[in-house]
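Example S7 (C-alpha cells).
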C-alpha cells in the first residue's frame, strides 16, 4: 500500500494495544485537529489505512539507538469497534485480525503521536473473520 493515496489524514495519539483473537489499538483525536465530522467517517466503518509515528516525536528522551528514531508504519484494513465523543476529542478502537498486522510493531505506537491516513471502505464489523 505504499503508493496508495488515502482520502483523509489526521493527527492522532495512539493509546493501548491489546492482543487476543484480534489486535486492537486505541486512538484519540483532538477535535481541533480533525477537519471532518468524525461520526461520518468512524461510526460503523471498515478502513483501508496507514498508521504512522516517530517514536521520539512526543518529546521522548533522545533515542538510544538510531533505529528507535525511525518512522514506524503499519498498513492494513481495520474496523472501528468503539467510538466515543467528548467536548475536546473523540476516541476510537481500531481492530485488526491478529495475523494481519505485526503486533510487536504496533505495540511500539503506544502513547505516541502520529497520523492515521485512511479511506472508508464500507460498514464495519467486529468479527475478525469478516475483516477483509
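Recovered sequence:
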Amino acid at each position: 500500500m505504499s503508493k496508495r493515496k488515502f482520502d483523509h489524514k489526521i493527527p492522532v495519539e495512539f493509546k493501548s494495544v491489546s492482543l487476543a483473537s484480534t489486535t486492537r489499538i486505541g486512538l484519540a483525536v483532538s477535535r481541533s485537529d480533525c477537519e471532518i465530522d468524525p461520526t461520518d467517517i468512524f461510526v460503523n466503518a471498515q478502513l483501508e489505512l496507514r498508521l504512522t509515528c516517530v517514536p521520539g516525536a512526543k518529546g521522548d528522551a533522545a533515542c538510544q539507538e538510531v533505529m528507535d528514531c525511525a518512522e514506524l508504519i503499519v498498513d492494513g484494513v481495520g474496523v472501528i469497534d468503539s467510538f466515543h465523543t467528548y467536548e475536546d476529542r473523540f476516541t476510537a478502537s481500531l481492530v485488526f485480525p491478529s495475523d494481519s498486522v505485526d503486533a510487536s510493531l504496533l505495540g511500539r505506537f503506544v502513547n505516541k503521536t502520529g497520523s492515521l491516513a485512511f479511506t472508508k471502505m464500507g460498514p464495519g464489523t467486529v468479527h475478525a473473520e469478516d475483516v477483509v
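Notes on this example. Residues 38-42 form the longest helix (5 residues).
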